[in-house]
Amino acid sequence: MAMITNHEDLYKRGGAGDISSIKASSKITQKSAQSKLREKIITNKRFKVESLELAEVVLSEVEEKEKVENSIKKLKHGRNVEALTTLYRSFARDWAHAETFIKCEGLPLLQGCFLSTDAELLHAAAWCAVNLSAGQSKVVKKVMCLSPTLIQFLSGSDRVMQELCAWALANLAGDSQRNKQILLEQGCVTILVTLVATKYYMDFEDLLKSVLFALVNLAKDETYACVRCMQESSIYSHIVTLLTDISANCDLCYEIGWLLNCLYSRQETLTEYYNQLSPVLHLIVNKLSQFMQIENKSQREKVLLPYVHCVGNIIGQKLDLAVVLCQEVQFYTWILTCLQCSDLYIQSEVLWLVNNFMVEPSCRVLIIIQSNILSAIFNLCHSSDVDIALQSLHLVQMMTKVSTFILTYLVHQGLVGLLILLVTHHDHRILQTTLDLLVHLVSVIPQHSR
């Protein structure tokens, strides 16, 4: 799972000079739908469970409440690993149990457990903090009192404790802008970046995964202060190292992709750290080419998503960056692969990426002359997913605006046949766009060329 974008994506729209009011409103609708789709696959907070079976154990409401209350009683009589284990499992099964825990004054007891020197008890207490912080905001607000303690353990030597505390801090940061600001003031960002620099991913992959999760949620800070702190702590050099050293098959690549997206999809980054964007694009394209070699289809498509999204956002900020991207030989190969994949999220992302790329007129021609890519876009105009079909058709519309010569070329590639098939489409937006394109064809192409 990845993270919800709190700031608006910096996608640019362009390429259609005479779009009707219906089409204009449909683009706004598309943008909103794009955001909603993304939120379905992205989460700010995560529970931790030992196994799916334990997470899905179903007890009656009365039984669960009794378990929580009995565990709190045990904690009152002494620090108890079994009681903490029962609690973090209950929290993962239902948010309501976290509320019961708070109401029964369990939080001070949990806070006291962090004073223990017993590693097993500390791990269980931190696990409770993880699942409490993954709950509803009214509970998370109470759990914020644990943040100084959690941050302190980040600097310790217990790797499991560091992983759990980073995870809990990630959940806290993902809950609200206020929490992000508090964690920044408490020094959380700098310590997390330091952990990225220590190369624990060589032996402690889970630790770095939690650290990256926390950094991603912090990087969605609305004021940009957290990202600026990361940059001042040399996050860029660490990102370069990660992209260079870590295998494409490593699960960490997914978290790195979302961190890249949060760092480099911001307008402030364009202003303050523009010199990083071109090298980052180059590294991402190289990584995407490695991802294409992953044999497991679901793993490949999962890890592709944040990187494709990131590239789309980066080139959507400045046309110069699209020109940089077109010089990457591997760019067109993975664009084609993404267009032909079965994952609708990736198809949608890569279509918006191509849309941003084609805002630059010279880049439109580069896409058009790639016959395989053009054919893939034509095919997606027939997609059973209406939003995908409409996105693809808008790209075709952008292509027709380049020149009469290019329009004639598109006709020779089967544009007229494509439009004729779409004239009977049930969606009014696709029908409207198709009719606009046909009118444009008739008005522009000379009679002898038809």
Structure description:
The structure is a single chain. The protein has 450 residues and is mainly α. It has a domain at 46-233: Leucine-rich Repeat Variant, CATH 1.25.10.10. The chain has 28 helices and no strands. The protein has helices spanning 21-40, 52-55, 61-76, 81-93, 95-103, 106-113, 119-133, 137-143, 147-154, 159-175, 177-185, 188-197, 205-219, 225-232, 235-245, 252-264, 267-272, 277-291, 297-315, 319-326, 331-340, 344-357, 361-368, 371-380, 386-399, 404-412, 415-422, 428-444. The protein starts with 20 loop residues before the first helix and ends in a 6-residue tail after the last helix. Keywords: Membrane, Transmembrane, Transmembrane helix. The chain crosses the membrane at residues 402-423.
Distance between the termini: 50 Å
Largest sheet: none
Low-confidence stretches: 1-42
Radius of gyration: 25 Å
Mean pLDDT: 86
CATH class of the domain at 46-233: Mainly Alpha
Q: Beta-strand level of the residues, as a percent range? A: under 5%
Q: List the total number of helices.
A: 28
Q: Write the H/E string, N to C.
A: HHHHHHHHHHHHHHHHHHHHHHHHHHHH
Shape: elongated
**In which range does the helix fraction lie?**
over 70%
**What CATH architecture of the domain at 46-233 would you give?**
Alpha Horseshoe
Oligomer: single chain
Could you name the CATH homologous superfamily of the domain at 46-233?
Leucine-rich Repeat Variant
Number of strands: 0
Structural class: mainly alpha
CATH fold description of the domain at 46-233: Leucine-rich Repeat Variant
